[in-house]
Amino acid sequence: MRERDDELEAPEDRRTRAQRERAALGALSVVYREADAAWAPFSCPASGECCQLTKTGRQPWLWRAEWVRLLERLKRDGRPLPPARADGACPFLDDTGLRCSVYADRPLGCRTFFCDRIRGPERQPAEVMDLLQRKLERLSVALDEEDTGPRPLLDWHRTTLPSLSNLPSPSGRGTG
After folding, report:
1. Would residue 166 be called left, alpha or beta, if left means φ above 0 and alpha means ψ between -120 and 50 degrees?
2. pTM confidence score
3. Residue 61 carries which DSSP code?
4. Is the pLDDT of residue 2 over 70?
5. Is 113:36 a contact under the CB 8 Å cutoff?
6. Crossing angle of helices 126-143/64-77, nearest 10°?
7. Rg of the chain's alpha carbons, rounded to an integer?
Protein backbone atom coordinates (compact mmCIF):
# COMPACT_ATOMS: atom_id res chain seq x y z
CA MET A 1 0.00 0.00 0.00
CA ARG A 2 1.38 3.41 -0.99
CA GLU A 3 1.75 5.99 1.74
CA ARG A 4 0.05 9.34 1.29
CA ASP A 5 2.43 12.04 0.03
CA ASP A 6 1.78 14.35 2.97
CA GLU A 7 2.89 11.60 5.36
CA LEU A 8 6.29 11.62 3.65
CA GLU A 9 6.86 15.36 4.04
CA ALA A 10 9.07 16.80 6.73
CA PRO A 11 7.13 18.64 9.47
CA GLU A 12 8.36 22.03 8.23
CA ASP A 13 7.02 21.22 4.73
CA ARG A 14 3.60 20.43 6.18
CA ARG A 15 3.69 23.63 8.24
CA THR A 16 4.57 25.64 5.15
CA ARG A 17 1.74 24.03 3.21
CA ALA A 18 -0.69 24.71 6.08
CA GLN A 19 0.44 28.35 6.17
CA ARG A 20 -0.03 28.66 2.40
CA GLU A 21 -3.49 27.14 2.70
CA ARG A 22 -4.50 29.54 5.49
CA ALA A 23 -3.23 32.52 3.48
CA ALA A 24 -5.01 31.37 0.31
CA LEU A 25 -8.27 30.78 2.15
CA GLY A 26 -7.99 34.20 3.80
CA ALA A 27 -7.41 35.83 0.41
CA LEU A 28 -10.35 33.85 -0.96
CA SER A 29 -12.59 35.42 1.69
CA VAL A 30 -11.59 38.84 0.39
CA VAL A 31 -12.37 37.82 -3.21
CA TYR A 32 -15.78 36.55 -2.11
CA ARG A 33 -16.56 39.77 -0.22
CA GLU A 34 -15.61 41.81 -3.31
CA ALA A 35 -17.82 39.62 -5.50
CA ASP A 36 -20.73 39.96 -3.08
CA ALA A 37 -20.31 43.75 -3.13
CA ALA A 38 -20.21 43.81 -6.95
CA TRP A 39 -23.41 41.76 -7.15
CA ALA A 40 -25.20 43.53 -4.26
CA PRO A 41 -27.40 45.63 -6.62
CA PHE A 42 -28.73 42.42 -8.20
CA SER A 43 -31.22 39.90 -6.90
CA CYS A 44 -32.66 36.58 -7.87
CA PRO A 45 -35.87 34.77 -6.91
CA ALA A 46 -33.86 32.17 -4.90
CA SER A 47 -35.52 29.31 -6.74
CA GLY A 48 -32.45 27.08 -6.64
CA GLU A 49 -32.87 26.56 -10.38
CA CYS A 50 -29.21 27.38 -11.02
CA CYS A 51 -28.26 24.54 -8.65
CA GLN A 52 -30.00 21.99 -10.88
CA LEU A 53 -26.71 21.32 -12.66
CA THR A 54 -27.77 18.47 -14.93
CA LYS A 55 -31.08 20.09 -15.81
CA THR A 56 -29.49 23.45 -16.75
CA GLY A 57 -26.38 21.93 -18.32
CA ARG A 58 -24.34 24.54 -16.41
CA GLN A 59 -22.24 24.26 -13.31
CA PRO A 60 -19.75 26.48 -11.54
CA TRP A 61 -16.08 25.94 -12.26
CA LEU A 62 -13.96 25.95 -9.11
CA TRP A 63 -10.30 26.58 -8.52
CA ARG A 64 -8.53 24.30 -6.04
CA ALA A 65 -8.71 26.97 -3.30
CA GLU A 66 -12.50 27.06 -3.62
CA TRP A 67 -12.78 23.29 -3.35
CA VAL A 68 -10.46 23.27 -0.32
CA ARG A 69 -12.67 25.93 1.29
CA LEU A 70 -15.77 23.77 0.79
CA LEU A 71 -14.02 20.75 2.29
CA GLU A 72 -12.84 22.87 5.22
CA ARG A 73 -16.42 24.05 5.77
CA LEU A 74 -17.66 20.48 5.91
CA LYS A 75 -14.84 19.59 8.30
CA ARG A 76 -15.73 22.53 10.61
CA ASP A 77 -19.37 21.43 10.56
CA GLY A 78 -18.41 17.82 11.25
CA ARG A 79 -20.12 16.70 8.05
CA PRO A 80 -18.88 14.31 5.37
CA LEU A 81 -18.78 15.21 1.71
CA PRO A 82 -22.38 14.68 0.58
CA PRO A 83 -23.02 11.96 -1.96
CA ALA A 84 -23.93 12.75 -5.54
CA ARG A 85 -27.61 13.55 -5.93
CA ALA A 86 -29.76 11.25 -8.04
CA ASP A 87 -31.34 14.29 -9.72
CA GLY A 88 -27.94 15.63 -10.85
CA ALA A 89 -28.30 18.78 -8.77
CA CYS A 90 -25.51 20.30 -6.73
CA PRO A 91 -24.52 17.88 -3.97
CA PHE A 92 -24.37 20.79 -1.52
CA LEU A 93 -28.11 21.43 -1.70
CA ASP A 94 -30.09 20.57 1.40
CA ASP A 95 -32.54 17.68 1.45
CA THR A 96 -35.32 19.86 0.00
CA GLY A 97 -33.15 20.64 -3.02
CA LEU A 98 -33.87 24.35 -2.60
CA ARG A 99 -31.22 25.74 -0.25
CA CYS A 100 -27.44 25.68 -0.28
CA SER A 101 -25.97 23.92 2.76
CA VAL A 102 -22.64 25.81 2.37
CA TYR A 103 -24.07 29.19 1.35
CA ALA A 104 -21.54 31.38 3.20
CA ASP A 105 -18.68 29.44 1.57
CA ARG A 106 -20.22 28.92 -1.87
CA PRO A 107 -17.83 29.27 -4.82
CA LEU A 108 -17.43 32.43 -6.89
CA GLY A 109 -19.54 31.03 -9.72
CA CYS A 110 -22.42 30.53 -7.28
CA ARG A 111 -22.19 34.16 -6.19
CA THR A 112 -23.04 35.44 -9.66
CA PHE A 113 -26.46 35.49 -11.24
CA PHE A 114 -26.73 33.80 -14.60
CA CYS A 115 -30.39 32.88 -14.88
CA ASP A 116 -32.90 34.85 -16.91
CA ARG A 117 -34.76 35.98 -13.82
CA ILE A 118 -31.97 38.19 -12.47
CA ARG A 119 -33.08 41.66 -11.39
CA GLY A 120 -30.85 44.69 -11.15
CA PRO A 121 -28.84 47.14 -13.22
CA GLU A 122 -28.78 46.60 -16.96
CA ARG A 123 -25.03 45.99 -17.00
CA GLN A 124 -23.47 43.17 -14.99
CA PRO A 125 -20.06 43.73 -13.28
CA ALA A 126 -17.96 42.01 -15.96
CA GLU A 127 -14.77 44.00 -15.32
CA VAL A 128 -14.89 43.34 -11.59
CA MET A 129 -15.52 39.65 -12.18
CA ASP A 130 -12.58 39.45 -14.59
CA LEU A 131 -10.32 41.00 -11.95
CA LEU A 132 -11.64 38.64 -9.27
CA GLN A 133 -11.11 35.62 -11.52
CA ARG A 134 -7.49 36.64 -12.01
CA LYS A 135 -7.05 37.08 -8.24
CA LEU A 136 -8.59 33.68 -7.69
CA GLU A 137 -6.20 32.13 -10.19
CA ARG A 138 -3.17 33.71 -8.47
CA LEU A 139 -4.16 32.56 -5.01
CA SER A 140 -4.95 29.05 -6.24
CA VAL A 141 -1.54 28.78 -7.89
CA ALA A 142 0.06 30.09 -4.67
CA LEU A 143 -1.73 27.27 -2.85
CA ASP A 144 -0.67 24.66 -5.39
CA GLU A 145 1.88 25.54 -8.07
CA GLU A 146 0.69 22.59 -10.13
CA ASP A 147 -2.91 23.82 -10.22
CA THR A 148 -3.97 23.45 -13.83
CA GLY A 149 -7.03 25.67 -13.62
CA PRO A 150 -10.63 25.54 -12.57
CA ARG A 151 -12.71 22.40 -12.94
CA PRO A 152 -16.46 21.83 -12.88
CA LEU A 153 -17.88 21.37 -9.39
CA LEU A 154 -19.10 17.86 -10.16
CA ASP A 155 -15.60 16.87 -11.37
CA TRP A 156 -14.13 17.94 -8.02
CA HIS A 157 -16.89 16.05 -6.24
CA ARG A 158 -16.54 12.89 -8.34
CA THR A 159 -12.75 12.72 -7.91
CA THR A 160 -12.77 13.56 -4.20
CA LEU A 161 -15.29 10.93 -3.06
CA PRO A 162 -13.04 7.94 -3.93
CA SER A 163 -9.98 9.53 -2.33
CA LEU A 164 -11.90 10.14 0.89
CA SER A 165 -12.98 6.51 1.05
CA ASN A 166 -9.32 5.43 0.92
CA LEU A 167 -8.20 7.62 3.81
CA PRO A 168 -7.51 5.88 7.10
CA SER A 169 -10.39 6.00 9.54
CA PRO A 170 -9.77 7.39 13.03
CA SER A 171 -9.16 3.82 14.21
CA GLY A 172 -6.27 3.56 11.75
CA ARG A 173 -8.02 1.19 9.37
CA GLY A 174 -9.01 2.22 5.85
CA THR A 175 -12.65 2.80 5.14
CA GLY A 176 -12.65 1.39 1.64
Report:
1. alpha
2. 0.78
3. E
4. no
5. no
6. 80
7. 18
